[in-house]
Amino acid sequence: MEFSKYNVFVEGYPQENYLTIYNMFTHKIMCVTKNSEAWSTQLRDKMLGQGILVDDQIMQQEEVLRFYHKEAGNSNELIVMLILTRKCNCKCVYCYEEQQKAQFDDMIDISRIISSIIDLMKQMSVQNLKVIFYGGEPLLRKDIISRTSQTFHDLLRERYSFSIVTNGTQIEKEDFVLWKELGLKAIKVTLDGNEKSHNSRRPYQNGTGSYHDIVENLADIKDYTHIVLNIVLDYSVEGIQDLITDLRKKGIEPEVSLCVKEPNDYNSEEKATLVLRTAELLASMQVYQSTKIGFDHGIICMGKNTHTFGIDGKGVVYRCNGDFNSVIGTISSDIEKPFSQIKSKCAQCKYLPICFGGCLYKHRCEYNYFDKVVPGLVKIYTRRTV
Questions:
Q1: What pLDDT, on the 0 to 100 scale, is given for residue 123?
Q2: Burial of 190 (0-12, 13-18, 19+ CB in 10 A)
Q3: What domains are there in the chain, each with its CATH number?
Q4: In 3D, which of 324, 258, 325, 316 has the Cα closest to residue 287?
Q5: Tens digit of pLDDT for each residue in 34-60?
Q6: Angle at which helices 268-284 and 240-249 cross, to 10°
Q7: Given this model, what pLDDT does residue 386 score?
Q8: Distance CA 325, CA 361 (A)
Q9: How far is CA 105 from CA 14, 68, 138, 198, 327, in A?
Q10: Is 315 left (phi over 0), alpha (psi -120 to 50) or beta?
Q11: Rounded to an integer, what distance in angstroms lies between the CA atom of residue 212 and that of residue 189?
């Protein structure tokens, strides 16, 4: 019997003579005295049952890999990220799509795309469909969202759901009243700090600020969908506490997702400090955060999931929506997405349950970053537990 290699140890927490142990695979946590000789047989059995202690490291590693194979090869649901347009009414300073807009058209034949998605469901023998409407700014094509969702809802009923990734400036309540009935589950909106901070980073095309409009719009639709607030972090973001206060004044309690602006030249320590500083602030305000170790398991890259695709207005199908060189065909051809095996080095890594080999296209190992950030996140996320 030995410690699982997927454990994170936080010594001297919550008190000097104690040790907090968090297992990244089972998501079980225990707070024990540092003196292991004082651990009772009953306590050891409990730790074994929670995966914190293991009889065989290889068996637990195989269990993690089985989970990956099950999730990456999920046969119950087709997930389509539908890129409605590359046009956008905002001019975000870090927009990675700016240089790629000219390559894409708006949706040119939505009937053909809808039909092809249904055919793809049959080809893959899946029962459920989830569509993520994406852009550019997808709410510039509300007509397509309504038409597509009405068609899929009529065909699939409760087996269809959708979400929208939007800048939040084009939200209108009447659309969300309808879309809720058609299967809308969530929207994801980015607000980068307080009004001054956000407006300097995410203005309208004419340079005026978008913050006030977004906050007011979210207040209008808070009762009709789940709101995920995305914050793109770098060291220039300011006023996150003010942002949360402004939202709460409008009755909005969002789930918050943190991501670090790409590209960046931060080293592992700088990146970890940035994330931990923000996570600590949000935790102090009792804001729910859905960063990696907050999930039941880690994030599996979209490019690796065999039942997740990106489709643009020309009907081009992408393995990953974040890499427009990852073309695997068109909607008029037979689409097959190869399964991505985890590299041997990654399979041996202690951070496998929260990384699963990372991004398929960035080819960047985050081991040093995880080493610095995960123990701090454990303390933040588990404060109430221990």
A1: 86
A2: buried
A3: 69-330 (3.20.20.70)
A4: 258
A5: 888 889 999 999 999 999 999 999 999
A6: 30
A7: 41
A8: 10
A9: 55, 35, 13, 29, 16
A10: left
A11: 13
CB-CB contact of 266 with 275 (8 Å): no
Is the peptide bond preceding residue 14 cis, with omega within 30 degrees of 0?
A: yes
Residues 6+ away with beta carbon under 8 Å from 153: 160, 181, 182, 183
- Give me 89's structure tokens: 């009414």
Residues 6+ apart with CB under 8 A from 301: 320, 340, 356, 357, 358, 359, 360
In this predicted structure, the answer to whether residue 107 has a pLDDT above a threshold of 70 is no
Beta bridge partners of 132: 81, 163
Neighbours of 181 (CB within 10 A): 12
CA angle 208, 137, 364 (to 5 degrees): 105
CA distance 242 to 277: 15
What integer is the mean pLDDT of 322-343?
Answer: 79
Model confidence, pTM: 0.91
For residue 385, the model assigns a pLDDT of 45
Residue in this structure with the two tokens 């789940």, named with its chain if needed: 226
Helical segments of 101-252, H only: 110-124, 142-156, 173-182, 195-201, 211-221, 240-249
- Rounded CA-CA distance 323/32 in Å is 45
CB 189 within 8 A of CB 247: no
Tell me the pLDDT band of 106, cut-offs 50, 70 and 90.
low
Helix (H) or strand (E) holding 383: none
**Tokens 């207040």, located at residue:** 219
User: What's the token pair of residue 339?
Assistant: 């399964």
Q: In angstroms, rounded to a whole number, what is the distance separating the alpha carbons of residues 140 and 89? A: 8
pLDDT > 80? residue 137: yes
Q: Give the integer Cα–Cα distance in Å for 191 and 133.
A: 19
Q: How many CB atoms lie within 10 A of CB 125?
A: 8
Q: CA nearest 292: which of 19, 2, 27?
A: 27
Measuring CA to CA, which residue among 352, 364, 191 is closest to residue 271?
A: 364
